Amino acid sequence: MPSIDDVTDAPEELSDEEADSLLSEADEVQDMMGEVCPYPQVEAQKGLQSLDAGELLVQETDHVPCTENVPRAVGDDATARVWRSDDGTYRIYLRKQ
Amino acid sequence: MNSLLIAAAVGLGLGVFLQKGRFCFVNAFRDLFAYKDSRVTKGVIAATLLTMVFWGTAYQLGYYQGFWTPGWGLTGLLGGFVFGIGMTYAGGCASGTLYRAGEGYLQFWLTLLFMGVGYAVFTVAFPTLQSTYFQPLTFGEGVSLFSVSPVPAGLLALLVAAGVTLVYATVIGRAKTSSDPGERATVASVELSGLLAPVVGLRQFGRGTRSYARGLVRAWRTPVASSKRPWDPRTAALGITAVAVLWFTQVSIVGVTGPEARWTGYLLEQVGVDAGGYEYWGAILFRGEGVGVTVDMLMIGFVIVGAGLAALWSGDFSLRVPKRRRLPNAVVGGLMMGAGSRLAPGCNIGNIYSGIAELSVHSFVAAVGIVAGVYVMTHWIYRDVGCAI
User: Fold this and answer.
1) Chain B residues inside the 8 Å CB shell of A73
2) Average pLDDT, chain A
3) Which of A12, A64, A74, A87 to mutate to test the interface with B (most CBs of B within 10 A)?
């Protein structure tokens, strides 16, 4: 049975607590505020290249499409989750596979 | 009907649907080339085909205000190519720049400003370009296939839409049959899969559409929460089609850079420049009727407002200050979009969306140029991380 996620295609969302505790254990944090597609996608791919399996890359962004396009761009290289602040900023959590 | 009301309804609607569907022509082609990600591409194709069917029908029944059909030739290819490079570098097409400006991106206000510079430079150079560029590179009178085809326009649009759907089904069907594991690739099975591909693809198309419709129905059960989430680009396509039909029957085809070029002339006139004295503004863009605010100029203004309201509603609005390293994208990308859209003429909306929906010969050529520009620029941007093709 398809869910609304099949229609909107958004990655799994993190709660505020999960998002904060995960951020403190991030191996790399990329500041993508003010940046638009496709540069966050390119930077995410570059960032993952320098990480080992299991390590966590976090992108901080204020560009809504990135929350879908960055997870799509990294594909099978990482599992992606997203945190929305509800005031126009987001974090994309990419755990390298 | 009051033209201000129509401009407001169409502009606000376009702004909301573009913002909620993240309906971006750069994304549609760039991510298709880079990652074979076709979600937004499907939305763009759906919007164009649906609009074509409704516009063709409206034209056949006489409910329309006119086509936009510039002369066709290499101008579409060259100008479209410049525009395609520019929009990929800037990170937003003509419509994308509008809705992102509404979302609070200062970078795209800068892009808009430099698109304006592009329009102004083009206007000054127009008399020279007329004899050195447009005359030698324009091969024929602009025409819409709707007006010359012996087939009634509504039926012609349906046939084209069915043809494109069949080609699309064959492509996804072939991808599916060739990726099925364990199948021995004998000559017979290759031939069989070649024949079956459209059937497999149509079935998959049907399943995808049904699952999309079920998702829509489910989304309606929690209207407020669903409206705040991002929408499928196909939902945006349905909404854009609806307002485009209203616009076509009441005003004209949907355009973005034409009205923007008029805004540039109008704003320069306000600060003392004799914009109407320039041939391109005075005689062509304002058709000798004097430099003033036209209904399509108001409409694209409302696109920015609509996108802003949609972003506020979703919690996506904020004033975003660009990083210094991105300023060249806004300046150079904006200039190339402004100049390219005049050289073609027409932007992604005028040519890929409206132009194909009205079956304008010029727009087929220009769309090829724009997509080629995106293709080349995508490879350049992704040169460090590799591109899928």
Assistant:
1) 31, 34-35, 37
2) 87
3) A64
Cβ separation of B105 and A36 shorter than 8 Å?
Answer: yes
The rounded distance, in Å, linking the Cα atoms of B146 and B158 is 12
Q: Nearest by CB to A34, which of B218, B316, B321? A: B321
ipTM tops 0.85: no
pLDDT at A1: 37
Tokens 């309906």, residue located: B23
Could you read off the pLDDT of B102-124 as tens digits, one per residue? 999 999 999 999 999 999 999 99
Lookup: tokens for B337:
């979009």
Active site residues of A: 37
Q: How far apart are CA B60 and CA B67, in angstroms?
A: 13
Among A9, A34, A67, the residue with its CB nearest the CB of B39 is: A9
Question: Which chain A residues are within 8 Å of B105, Cβ to Cβ?
Answer: 36
Q: Does B34 touch chain A (CB under 8 A)?
A: yes
- Give one DSSP letter per residue of B232-275, joined into a string: PHHHHHHHHHHHHHHHHHHT-S--SHHHHHHHHHHHHHHTT--G
- Report which residue type is found at B108: F
| Token couple for B54 | 């409704």
Residue B36: pLDDT band with limits 50, 70, 90: confident
For B332-345, write each residue's pLDDT tens digit.
999 999 999 999 99
Cβ neighbours of B180 (radius 10 Å):
10
Whether A62 contacts chain B with CB within 8 A? yes
B138 membership: H or E segment, kind and range: strand B138-140
Tell which residue, B303, B299, B288, has the closest CA to residue B250. Answer: B299
**Each residue of B266-289: pLDDT tens digit?**
999 999 999 999 999 999 999 999
Instruction: Note the pLDDT tens digit of each residue in B171-202.
Output: 888 887 766 555 455 556 666 666 788 899 99
